[in-house]
Amino acid sequence: MSSTSEKTRLFIEKAGSRLGAIVHGVDAKLPLTEEQKEFLRTELVRNKVIFLKKQFLDDAQHEALSRVFGEPILHPTIAAPEGTKYTFELKSRYGRSTDSWHTDVTFVPDYPKASILRAIHIPPYGGGTIWANTATAYDDLPPPLKALADKAWGIHSNDYDTNYYKFDGKKGEIAAFRAEFISKLYVTEHPVVRVHPESGEKTLVLGHFIIGLDGFPTREANALVDILQGYITQVENTVTWRWEEGDVAIWDNRATQHYAPADFDQQARQLRRITVKGDTPVSIDGRRSQYIKQP
Ligand SMILES: [Fe+2]
Predict the structure, then answer these.
(1) Count of other CB atoms within 10 angstroms of residue 24
(2) CA-CA distance, 45 to 135, in Å (whole number)?
(3) Mean per-residue pLDDT pooled into runs of 10, the chain (295 residues)
(4) Which residue ranges traverse the bilayer (predicted)?
(5) How many A from CA of 6 to the centre of ligand 1?
(6) Which class in CATH covers the domain with range 11-293?
(7) Would you say 182 and 158 are in contact if contact means Cβ atoms under 8 Å apart?
């Protein structure tokens, strides 16, 4: 086999046991063939997070890649950086990253179906990202806990506090980001268990935007969420990606949570993300997520 056909041969290499695979044979700087697009979409649902190594995309190429998975959307409250329409910039602030478990943007009903993240600047140590499989986490629940989760509804808001206790809120850049993040208030009710629209799997909808469980006092909601979250973040239920600059990770945001450990001290870390429009989750008994409050 020639080196050219080897470079364009589409195949996956597993990166973890329960989720995660590297896709080979795609150069996302170039227009993709229908076969490549279909391969990416299929492998995304199958593996939940896929990695394309050393792509070195610019903003326009990043946006073009995101369109393979759906319609790019802007973050509800954070403006895109200059020269881009849909990009969300992830920049370390005082050594901090998004170091708490979450699914992206679950404070709106039709939260993104997928996120496409590219590494621009990665520190020499630390700065990786961890993903967890929320479908296998559900499968792992003991039957009585499944029965409880099946009927529970979570309240999610962008005015959450799970992560911010770690920050010194007086520091200007963090305070400014927080103020922009909650400049408009969103509160949404999601089933704790949704049925994945493509795979039919049942997945847990939790993560750091959850501020309560419908019908439960705060103390009991926190305890229950902790128990369920424990099945998601079980180490064996995760995959870790040690970024190299130029890498792209694409995750099925309907079937995963992720966490960026703040383990890189004060070194710079910069990535850019584009999310694509999602569908509104449907519970096992056919009810849809809905706004409780929106601007
Ligand atoms: Fe995120």
Answers:
(1) 15
(2) 11
(3) 64 98 97 97 98 98 98 94 93 85 97 98 97 98 98 96 60 79 95 98 97 96 97 98 98 98 94 98 98 97
(4) none
(5) 33
(6) alpha beta
(7) yes
Q: What is the largest CA-CA distance in the chain?
A: 64
pTM above 0.85, yes or no: yes
Kindly list the distances between the CA atom of residue 75 and the CA atoms of 4, 39, 111, 187, 254, in Å, as whole numbers in the listed order.
Answer: 39, 27, 10, 15, 17
Q: What is the number of residues in the chain?
A: 295
| 248 vs 148: CA distance, rounded Å | 37
CB atoms within 5 A of ion ligand 1 belong to 104
Identify the burial level of 199 via C-beta atoms within 10 angstroms of its C-beta, where 0-12 means exposed, 13-18 middle and 19 or more buried.
middle
Catalytic residues: 102, 104, 258, 273
User: Could you give the CA distance from residue 195 to residue 202 in angstroms, rounded to a whole number?
Assistant: 5
Q: What confidence score (pLDDT) does residue 169 get?
A: 60
> What is the distance in A from the centroid of ligand 1 to the CA of 7?
31
Task: Give the Cβ contact number of residue 187 at 10 Å.
Answer: 18
Pairing of strands 187-191, 72-73: unpaired
Structural tokens at position 176 = 């400014």
Cβ within 8 Å of residue 129, ≥6 positions away: 117, 240, 241, 243, 249, 258, 259, 260
Q: Report in angstroms the alpha-carbon separations of 59 from 34, 38, 81, 119, 250.
A: 22, 22, 10, 12, 15
